[in-house]
Amino acid sequence: MRLRGPWLAGVGLTPFGRQPGRSVLDWQAVAAHDALDDAGVAPRQVDAVLAGYATTTGHLMPADLLAEHLGARPDIAYGMSVGGATGLAMVAAAARLIEAGDAEVVLVAAGEDRASGQSTDTSTRTLAQVGHREHEVPVGATVPAYYALLASRYLAEHGLEPADLAPFAVQMRAHAAAVDGAHFRSPITVADVGSSARIAEPLRLLDCCPVSDGGAAFVVTAGPPRDVGVRIAGVGEAHRHQHVSEADFDDFGARRCAGQALDRAGRGVSDIDIAGVYDSFTITVALLLEEIGFSAPGRSGADVAAGRFDRAGALPLNTHGGLLSYGHCGVAGGMAHLVEVVTQLRRAAGGRQVAGRPRTGFVHADGGVLSSHVSVVVEAA
Q1: Handedness of CA 270, 275, 280, 281 (dihedral sign)
Q2: Peptide bond into 6 cis (omega under 30)
Q3: Per-domain residue ranges for the chain?
Q4: In this model, does residue 246 exceed pLDDT 90?
Q5: Homologous superfamily of the 7-118+212-221 domain (CATH)
Q6: What are phi and psi of 166, to 5 degrees?
Q7: d(CA 54, CA 109)
Q8: pLDDT score for 1
C-alpha cells in the first residue's frame, strides 16, 4: 500500500559565503537541481514550484521565473515573502498542497547573492524596512538595533550579562568547523565575542550572523522517496505582529506555533532528538528556545555553555553551524537548518553525525523581529 506524504524526498544546499559571480536565479537553480537529483525527480515531473523572495532582485514572479529556467511546467507557482520564516512557510504550504491532493511533487527553492549583489549599506537599509515606516525607520533603526532592544530587555529581566549570550556564537562556530561550505569555520571564544566590534549595544559583531550568498531547496512529494524517507509530521504557524513596537514580549508567537506543529505530529518537546532553531542573532535563538520550551526562562545561555546543545548533548542544535556561522543568504538561510536536520535523520552527515540514532527533528524559523513564526516536525520513516 502506498504511503501518502508529505515526504521530504530531496534536499539541496550550496556553500554559503561571499561568492561573487552568481545571480539570485543561479543560486536558486543550483540548489533546486541538487534537490531534484537527490529525489530522483526530473523538472517536468514537478507540478508546483514555490520560490522565496530575494532582496537583490525585484522580480514579481520568482516561482514562474525559476520554473521556466529549470524547464518545469507546473500547474501551481507561488512566490512567498514572510522574512526569515519564508523557507519553512513554503515547506508548510507544500505539505498542505500534498495533503489536499492538489500536487504530487512540489519544489521549494530560495537563493540570493545577498553578500556580493549589493552593498552593506543597501542591505542594511532594505532589511530595516521591517520596522514601522513612521515611528521606527526614520530614526535610523536597523535590524540589529531592533534585536538589541530585545536583548537589553531580556538581559535586564533575567539579571544576565551580554557574555551570557556569547556561548551560542561559540557553539555555532564549533559546529561549523566540521562543515564544508560554512561561511565561517575558525574557532572563537566567549572573550572573542565580547571583544568584537560593537554593532548595537549589547550586541557585538560575533552576536550577529554574517551576510552570505547561497541557496537551498527541497522536493516535497506525496509518495515516499526511493531510499531513506523523512516525513513531515506536523507544521505550525503564528503571525502575531509586524513591528516590534506592537509585540507582546510574553508571547511572540513561537510557543503557539511550535505547539501546533508538535500537537499535529503527536509529539512534545521531550520527544525531539535534534533541532534547528533560527539564530540570526544570539538573542534570537535564546528567546526562541525559551519560549518554545527547550530551555527554562533565562537559562538557554547556561544550557549551551554546559554542552546541552552540542552534537553529543541532550539536544543537538544547529549542527551545521546555524545562521551565526554557516551563514545567512536570506530565505535559504533558514532553510539550511531543515536541510541539516533531514541529513542527520538520514544518518548521512558523515563525520558530524550526531550520537545515537535521531528519529524526530524539530525546526523553527522567524521573520522580521520575531514577527512571523513557522515550525516543522519531521520524522525518519
Answers
A1: positive
A2: yes
A3: 7-118+212-221
A4: no
A5: Thiolase/Chalcone synthase (3.40.47.10)
A6: -60, -35
A7: 11
A8: 29
